[in-house]
Amino acid sequence: MRINEIRLNNFRNYTTLKMRFEKRINVLVGDNAQGKTNLLEAISFLSTVRSFRIKDETDLIKKDSEVARIEGLIASPIGEKRLTVMISQTGKSLLIHKNPVKRTSEFIGQCNAVLFTPADMDFFEAPPKVRRRMMDVELSKLSPVYMENLNQYAKILKERNTYLKQELPDIEYLEVLSDQLVALQIPIIESRREFLNFVTKRISALFCEFMEMDFKIDIQYESEIDDTEDISRKLSHKIAASLKRDMAFKMTHVGIHRDDAKFTINDFDVSSFASQGQKRMLILALKMAILEFIVSKIDTYPILLLDDVFSELDSKKKEKFAQLLPKGVQIMITTTEINEIKGWPANETDVFLVKNGIITPYKEDYR
Ligand SMILES: Nc1ncnc2c1ncn2[C@@H]1O[C@H](COP(=O)(O)OP(=O)(O)OP(=O)(O)O)[C@@H](O)[C@H]1O
Ligand SMILES: [Mg+2]
User: Fold this and answer.
1) Is 132 left (phi over 0), alpha (psi -120 to 50) or beta?
2) Nearest to residue 333, comparing CAs of 17, 25, 23?
3) Largest interatomic CA distance in the chain
4) Alpha-carbon distance 330 to 305, whole Å?
5) Would you tell me how many other CB atoms lie within 10 Å of the CB of residue 76?
6) Angle made by CA atoms 363, 366, 367, in degrees to the nearest 5
7) How far apart are CA 259 and CA 185, in angstroms?
8) Which of 53, 70, 228, 353 is deepest in the core (most CB within 10 A)?
9) Which residue ranges have their beta carbon within 6 Å of ligand 1?
């Protein structure tokens, strides 16, 4: 998958931007606070219809402007696909070509991008919801059905939790809601397990190659039900057994909204065992394993967005990382130091200077 062009209007610190990506590797170089991450945020927004940095999307609108617009031209076998997002104070609208799209699930994944950001460094220490979100974001991009199930599950869960707060909730009605929750979460659990199984198989090899040492990396899907047989019946049983507790605490204790992915390195918990550098490399190996999962599903690599990926990597690791990147993938990479990309394939690389919301070709010879 390739993005051929991006256009921005009043997005963050960009007033207008029109930028073509002719080469496979696009390096965005510039000092701090010039707009490098903002550009990756715009591309990522086209992919996931959310910002990886903020919740309140009106912050994406350029100060003193009314509407932010992101437009991307995505290469496809039948010509370019035009994706547009418009964000205003009252909400956002999505268009494919010029047609408004009602359901976010129809838009997500039309542009499939995988992102590395320095905030990912907290991934292993973060609360379970961060690791759930990683699975859900990647799977939603690949399947509108997955996303619809997830949304529906969230809706019914909210309804059940609200209902639990009533004085005397009707048990039969709670059971109806429980049954709906069980039915909705089975395909979600199956998809999450399949995703983690695939990623687990690849991540050890990638990490060992990166570290040039042998390690065993495991990822376990952690949920109320450990095995994969007859989960519907077992889940129903667990939810029924939790009814008293749910009523006492006025919340739903059992379900995919509590699940987690547990990462171990040589059978130790990554968060307490791995060094900072190892964690960074493990995250990069995870992202690359995700690229392979996506290619196995849609036959094309997603776009890889790398924000500030080099800091904390020693020079040998930087070189190794460049070698490990799959050859067919389109890459957008930010850096403050042009020297970081010495040795990257020049014929496949364009370098751009980002300065105060304006992007120009980088003129100086950096090799
Ligand atoms: N809504 C907005 N309107 C105008 N400017 C904004 C808005 N949101 C952010 N900015 C500006 O964008 C700049 C930050 O851009 P960005 O995060 O892309 O920096 P960067 O080039 O990635 O820097 P660093 O190297 O420090 O990561 C800041 O100057 C900030 O004030
Ligand atoms: Mg940045």
Assistant:
1) alpha
2) 25
3) 74
4) 9
5) 13
6) 135
7) 11
8) 70
9) 12-13, 30, 32-38, 59, 61-63, 336, 354
Q: How far apart are CA 301 and CA 2, in angstroms?
A: 9
Which pLDDT value is given to residue 367?
A: 66
CA–centroid distance, residue 333 to ligand 2 (Å):
10
Ligand having the closest approach to the CA of 335? 1
Locate the ligand 1 atom nearest the alpha carbon of residue 336 and give its number: 25
Take residue 134 and report the two structure tokens written for it: 């990683």
Lowest-pLDDT range of 233-247, 248-262, 302-316: 302-316
Which of 9, 12, 88 maximizes ligand 1 atoms within 8 Å of its Cβ, making it the mutation to test the pocket?
12
Handedness of CA 38, 40, 46, 50 (dihedral sign): negative
The answer, yes or no, to whether residue 124 has pLDDT greater than 80, is yes
Distance CA 49, CA 57 (A): 10
Indicate whether 38 pLDDT > 90: yes
Helix, coil or strand: residue 270:
helix
Domains defined along the chain, listed by start: 1-112+302-367 (3.40.50.300), 122-299 (1.20.1050.90)
Distance 357 CA to ligand 1 centre (A): 8
Distance 242 CA to ligand 2 centre (A): 45
Classify 79 in phi/psi space as left (phi over 0), alpha (psi -120 to 50) or beta: left
